[in-house]
Specification:
3-stranded antiparallel sheet; alpha+beta; globular; Metal Binding Protein, Guanine Nucleotide Exchange Factor, Chain A; single chain; 6-stranded antiparallel sheet; 9 strands; binds zinc ion
Length: about 170
């Protein structure tokens, strides 16, 4: 117990020393925008920080679990080759080969990247329905819902708000 405490304190001391050194050395406050896909360090930001980073529409969808109006997303009828990332934290969530035309007015995918740990599934009983909400596991941003009526082999339909997504074009 005591040993644990001591090592925790020592660890914190080391951390604060190294962060001090970093600020002294680099002398910038630009936040790092890495595309790391490690899910063990969730992003925690205040509502104010999210409001600064996101557009008001993105904030409404990602942070307030809103739904964009159907057929309004630039990614609805969009089938270029590339990777779809979370608009909140840049985590790679879907690829263009997982996208299909769901005719539902929102970007639809039949699978996700990363073996299940990047897209979190949560039971959603709102609006008198039983649905499964999907959120980004890294920043907890609302993506949309997942249904089991997909037309492809997976049988899954990830119905995603385009406002929750960014797109990285495949390099040729
Ligand atoms: Zn995210």
């Amino acid at each position: 117990m005591n040993l644990n405490l001591i090592s925790t304190i020592a660890f914190c001391l080391v951390c604060s020393f190294s962060s001090c050194q970093n600020t002294n050395n680099t002398n910038t406050t630009t936040p790092k925008t890495t595309t790391s896909t490690t899910m063990d360090t969730p992003i925690k930001k205040t509502d104010e920080e999210w409001k600064k980073q996101l557009t008001s529409e993105q904030y409404y969808v990602l942070r307030e679990k809103g739904t964009e109006r159907p057929f309004t997303s630039q990614y609805n009828n969009f089938f270029e080759a590339g990777t779809y990332v979370c608009a909140g934290c840049n985590t790679e969530l879907f690829t263009s080969t997982q996208k299909f035309d769901g005719h539902c007015g929102w970007p639809s995918f039949d699978g996700e990247l990363g073996g299940g740990e990047r897209v979190k599934k949560i039971k959603d009983l709102s609006h008198g329905m039983v649905r499964t909400e999907i959120v980004c596991a890294k920043c907890n941003g609302h993506l949309g819902h997942i249904f089991d009526d997909g037309p492809t082999a997976s049988g899954l339909r990830y119905c995603v708000n385009g406002l929750s997504l960014g797109f990285k074009k495949a390099e040729k």
